[in-house]
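Lab notebook, bench 4. The sequencing result for the construct came back, and we need a structural model before the next group meeting so we can plan mutations. Quick request posted to the team channel:

Model the 3D structure of this chain.
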Amino acid sequence: MFGKLKRRLALIYTGIFALILVIVVAATVIIGGVSVIKNEKEMLIADIHDEWREWTGSGELPVDPVMVERGEMMSLLYDGSGRLVVDQMSGSPYAEQIMSMRENWPQEDGSTEILCFENGGEKKFILMGLCRFVTNGTVQGDLYTFVNLEDYYDMAVDGFAFLLLLCLVCIVTAGGGGYYMAAKNIKPLELLFKREHEFAANASHELRTPLTVMSLGIESLQNDPDSKFSPYAEETLRDMQQETQYMSKLTEALLTLARGDEDNVTLQKEKVDLTAVMADICAQLRPLAEQKNLQLVFNGTRRVFSLCDKDKIKQLLIILVDNAIKYSDSGTITAEVEADGMQAVIRVLDEGISITEGEAERIFERFYRVDKARSRASGGFGLGLSIAQWIVKRHGGSITAHQRDGGGTVFTVRLALYR
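Done. Here's the predicted structure in token form:
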């Protein structure tokens, strides 16, 4: 139990750390990327103005032809009528793709755009900017300049891979640290629980013998023909016998849960016909239901099999049906077994006390009873459903309780279906 708790806490710690780490890394990457692109855009606009000054001064654009051939930097100059004046792109390996995306080019002075396309199966990113130069209200020219962002893209990919690896290392380290801290924090609780568990197990075990002796002694007195008791003494003996039986059941339940907490109970799994088992349980408990003027009905015509411990499943079904009888004063108790997909479904429906949503969440807690007065009077001690839940969980199934329409409670057990 504590091993699962340690792993769960370690996963929670690791998850929180991973979430924070992802948020920090994502924010850093986004802010860094936006900052770099913004800086590149500003530098590109400044370079275009420098190119224009060089053009007006010397009649040439200062773009290195080698950079054009490599596709690192390109420029196009159009005059005021839209005629191409200077072409420093046609020698570029990306000229065709860039020209095919003419409709995506920026149209306003000082604006920029990032063009994305594939070349040779690789992603290419080109940052382009436009500066429109006007003199006395007349457009002198539109100068487009293109800068390859491939180096930044490669750096981003490598940086992302490095950050991803760093995150994985940090998360694994955090997971180990989280498990260590969880184990350290749980250790005192684990020791305390172990002592309480040992006490409950030892006390339950030690109580079984004296309770058995007391029960046999009381029974001997009641059946002794030579003993003469007053009506008061006979009533006292009956009360003592009932309380002894109650304590014996409580001790047995505590011992069952104590063994279950140790997680060392071995299930003897076999192919079990749940329909037949439920039919037998209903036949066994029907006289008990009839004593309270209750109808106990079993609905199950199809044989449903599951790989489980037959004795534990019998104990589970007895708990559920007996619980329905205890909490019902009239009406019908219905037991059902059916197959639903890959699951075997067992339901016990009664028309007794309805439970609220809050009670449905707590009803499987140890010693929790919806109606404490009725439970004590009927011999219940609030451990039956805890044992039922333990049995179901050990079989890898689930058990739930909810209010029934029209009054009453529905208990639903789901186990793996054997095919």
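The CA atoms of residues 333 and 350 lie 5 Å apart.
Will bring this to the meeting.
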